[in-house]
Write a structure and sequence with these properties.
The chain has 23 helices and 22 strands. With 691 residues, the protein is α/β, with parallel strands linked by helices. Helix 7 (215-241) crosses helix 22, helix 8 runs antiparallel to helix 10 (297-310) and helix 9 (266-279) runs parallel beside helix 10 (297-310). The longest helix has 27 residues, at 215-241.
């Protein structure tokens, strides 16, 4: 049950003065449905209002004047504004109002009335004016205009000033809360109390008060991160308390390793050892293998599945698309079947008698490994003894989907795989409830991808070279950029490029985009994988995750528009065979300094982890690593980049808390319960599970 001290913050926004049926939907859209959400709405900037005379006005500045009303000029037509002519001892200024204000202006601001006005000054036809002043008050109300004012997000029909008033009332409802931070940490960081930190955010005196590096902003960020990390640490502790099958290392897996045409890297050996240690404990494993494209995650998972099969259990590998599931099936079925481990592929295409036979084989235990898509967790799919669930590209699945697969067995171990390397400093934000194994080495013998940056002005030469390569039997990806916020316009750009390449290369050019039905996408990808298409043109909304060893060329249009990590992921789609491969980064000149460094780094290295770290340093904020695709949580105060030192500290603190006070019964523990309720981060809230 929620602590009583937080009841005022969980009241609906309609409990705020002035928030009625018309305003409530707008405020909810902007902030959220409860008072706490309004109190947590951050100002994005501040305005410093400078007292001035008209003769000292500065174009573009926000200034405050004391004036006398000369009169109101009516609009000459419906598109014309109302104008209040005003003056002080140094000159005239016009106050401009668009819209049907009518006689109201004349009544409220009659001639010769003294007024104080504040707003952004601009010059128009050699005269100063303020369009829609922020304030226009009687002279004796001048004290109501703040010298420094925080500016909040606004929405149509709800101006920033109204939002500021609602935030002020919401802030007044926040009580002094019990201190949940460690006293030594508070002293070291010189953090104010939670309430004082929030008040300072909403009452900034200088621009630095809005900086995420300010002590009060760091305090709020740390509170939020601690609430999240504590929930994840509790979830991890709960999972470790859940019994699961003990799985021992097997000779079957070692024989499969011996048959492979390559030796495991040290990172693969280490990852397999960590998985086996988990499986041997009798506690439920929740582990992620994070590795670059082509680092050998799947064969490590295959050895774990072989161990499970040798002990009589079953495994399921779930992939986000049918073509990826088929690719995994082709990788696993041969080595496993050679050593007596039966494997089936189960997708949405399976119907009738063939599907029924596969389901019987799973239910009886005759088949030990199932590879498939979402079809694996449908209601009619039953396993004899599911002990290990492997989830590929885990960020593409919701938490509920992962859990539905795991509930097909009892105490099912979870092994997730991700081919999107992220810096170690950010791992906790996404994978705080998972143990992480890193495969940070590439198998020997992989051919490096030669990467070149070419200006768009030479696109004709690139097309000609591509035609020659295709004539010699090569296959290529051609990625079109995000050219606008309109998917329709992006699609048109891709279609135009596909038509142009068909004219240059021939009919073997295919197109894939986000508006196609999944079955149609899979069909085009299958044609490309089978070699029936030479060139695949794709928009950025499509994750081209299929393994096509014959594809040796990757062309990325307007590469400067892409994040560094995204460029690296796209480049990783080629160079999977033994032939030399190339990546061509087409760019619009001139490049910014950051874009130039980004392309230079890609030319110098193919280490995904090093590239992710560099991306973090270069971009510092925003969506540097494709956060929306990578399962990062939505934070209110914390910034995964600016506050990465706090992420590690919060993770350490959370583990210590759970180790010493797992039930949160101490004085600090009870305060931490308030923190978790305040930020809605609890171990049981699966919907907020990152990834």
């Amino acid at each position: 049950m929620r602590p009583e001290i937080l009841f005022p913050l969980y009241a609906p926004v309609t409990s705020l003065k002035g928030v009625g049926p018309r305003v409530a939907p707008m405020l909810e859209k902007l902030a959220g449905p409860i008072v706490r959400d309004v109190a947590f709405l951050k100002p994005h900037s501040l305005v410093r209002r400078t007292p001035a005379t008209v003769s000292s006005a500065i174009d573009g500045q926000v200034m405050t004047f004391q004036v006398t009303i000369a009169g109101v000029e009516r609009p000459r037509g419906p598109a014309q504004p109302w104008r209040i002519r005003a003056f002080d001892q140094t000159g005239f200024i016009s106050l401009v109002f668009f819209g049907a204000f009518g006689s109201g202006l004349e009544q409220r601001h009659p001639a010769n009335a003294l007024r104080v006005v504040s707003g952004k000054v601009e010059q128009f036809r050699d005269e100063w004016q303020i369009v829609h002043p922020d304030y226009l008050l009687a002279a004796d109300k001048a004290g109501d205009i703040p010298d420094i004012e925080p500016i909040y997000p606004a929405t149509l029909g709800l101006p920033a000033r109204s939002v500021r008033r609602f935030v002020g009332e919401a802030l007044d409802r926040i009580p002094e809360l019990p201190e949940w931070q460690d006293a030594a940490w508070l002293a070291r960081e010189r953090f104010p109390t939670f309430r004082a930190a929030l008040a300072r955010l909403h009452e900034p005196q200088v621009e630095a008060d809005l900086s995420p590096s300010s002590p009060h902003c760091r305090r709020l960020a740390y509170d939020e991160l601690l609430a999240q990390q504590l929930a994840m640490a509790q979830r991890r502790a709960e999972r470790r308390r859940e019994p699961a099958a003990r799985v021992a290392a097997s000779q079957v897996a070692e024989k499969i390793r011996a048959d492979l045409p390559f030796r495991f890297t040290r990172a693969q050996d280490r990852s397999l050892a960590e998985i086996r240690a988990d499986l041997a404990t009798g506690e439920r494993m929740s582990r992620l293998i994070q590795g670059d494209v082509g680092s050998g995650k799947t064969v490590v998972a295959m050895c774990a599945m072989a161990d499970v099969a040798a002990g009589g259990g079953q495994s399921a590998l779930m992939a986000p698309t049918e073509i990826l599931a088929r690719q995994h099936y082709e990788t696993l079925s041969g080595p496993l079947a050679t050593h007596g481990v039966g494997v089936i592929l189960l997708t949405g295409r399976d119907k009738g008698v063939p599907r029924a036979e596969k389901l019987r084989a799973l239910a009886s235990g005759a088949v030990k490994v199932a590879v498939g898509t979402h079809a694996l967790f449908q209601d009619d799919v039953a396993f004899h003894q599911l002990q290990l669930a492997v989830v590929d590209e885990q960020h593409r699945f919701g938490v509920s989907e992962r859990q539905r697969l795991q509930t097909k067995g009892w105490g099912t171990h979870l092994l997730a795989m991700s081919a999107t390397p992220i810096p170690r400093t950010l791992e906790l934000t996404v994978y705080g409830d998972l143990d992480v194994s890193r495969i940070d080495e590439k198998p020997p013998g992989r051919t490096p991808v030669a990467t070149r940056a070419v200006p768009m002005t030479r696109i004709g030469q690139v097309e000609q070279r591509l035609r020659e390569a295709v004539s010699a039997g090569a296959q290529a990806f051609w990625i079109c950029p995000l050219v606008s916020e309109s998917e329709f316009i992006d699609l048109k750009a891709a279609e135009t490029r596909a038509i142009e390449l068909q004219a240059t290369i021939g009919p073997s050019v295919g197109l894939i985009h986000g508006r196609m039905a999944p079955a149609a996408k899979d069909a085009v990808m299958a044609e490309f994988a089978d070699g029936r298409l030479s060139v695949l043109v794709a928009t950025t909304v499509v994750e081209v995750g299929v393994n096509v060893p014959n594809a040796t060329i990757m062309v990325i249009e307007q590469a400067e528009r892409f994040g560094l990590a995204q460029l690296h992921q796209l480049r990783g789609r080629v160079g999977r065979g033994r032939q030399e491969s190339a990546c061509v980064l087409l760019y619009d000149a001139p490049l910014s300094e950051t874009a130039q460094r980004r392309l230079d780094i890609l030319r110098r290295t193919d280490d995904g982890f090093a590239i992710a770290e560099t991306d973090l340093e270069l971009r510092g904020g925003g969506d540097a690593l494709g956060l929306k695709q990578s399962g990062f949580p939505d934070y209110v105060f914390a910034d995964p980049f600016t506050h990465r030192d706090l992420i590690a500290a919060a993770g350490d603190d959370a583990r210590l808390i759970v180790g010493r006070d797992p039930d949160l019964k101490s004085d600090r523990g009870l305060a931490l319960r308030v923190l978790q309720d305040l930020f809605d981060w609890k171990a049981g809230l699966g919907l907020r599970d990152a990834g």
